[in-house]
Predict the structure.
Amino acid sequence: MSGTVRQQKYSKLIQKELSEIFLRDKRGILGNAFITIADVRMSPDLSVAKVYFSMTLAKDKNALLNNIESHKSEIRKALGDRIRNQARIIPALVFFIDELEENAQRIEDVIKNLNIPKETKGDQD
């Protein structure tokens, strides 16, 4: 994680509060999908939060991302209601799908499927 201590503290606060907002999703934005906020990166002036999340039980991740994008103002208002006493600025939210887990799984599958012959003692020089 990079950035100043202030950015790091603010990003952790945003991550925690957005997790709570998505957990208690009263508006049905997520449907039956479960979202995990993987990372939040703040701009230096704390006005923009890039939110990276991973999804489980989501059939169409891009459709869910579009649904979240269309409800962005509601999510930002809920975030503002939760952090208004702790923060002066309520950041604009930019959502991204975190594909780290999927990429790691793909790499692990490729490594498992490699056909590497075992080294024998006679092969060493």
User: Anything to note?
Assistant: The two ends are 44 Å apart (CA to CA). Helices lie at 5-23, 61-70, 72-83, 100-112.
